[in-house]
Write a structure and sequence with these properties.
The chain is mainly α. It has six helices and two strands. It has helices at residues 2-28, 32-39, 47-57, 63-72, 105-140, 145-156; strands at 74-77, 84-87. Helix 5 runs antiparallel to helix 6 (145-156).
Length: 157
Amino acid sequence: MYAYIVRRLLLMPLLLFGVTILLFGMIGLLPEDARLALYLRDIPKNPKQSETLIMQYGLRDPIYIQYANWLFGREGADPNTGEVSIRGGILRGDFGWSRTGSDTIANVISRRFPATVELSLWAIVPIIGIGVWMGVLAAVKHNKWQDQLLRVFAIVG
């Protein structure tokens, strides 16, 4: 059992890498303006503004360069100060800006995380209680109608 868990934990980064490649590739199939809309809350008003933003976000770079920039960040100049720095990068902890608010996604997650944990902990108590009861009942009534009903309920949810 220990080896199984370790093997699954070691495969997790590979799975995450594969899922991000797949999703990033699917987003890469969208037209430039649609991809640009994923980065912005307000749609640019004129083509020159769109072109500037497409170049700023590197949407014309090859897909593997865009993926590397998304993972590790991209060197760019601050539009206000002109200072060059590395911006973005999921592995650097920069998830970008929220489209619905004027805050970073990391701040939005950190604000809502405690409530999510509390809700999860309150929900897990009855789930475990009901699950254990149903498992015992299914074992006691093996291959009877109660067991069949509980199997259907477990599969359908």
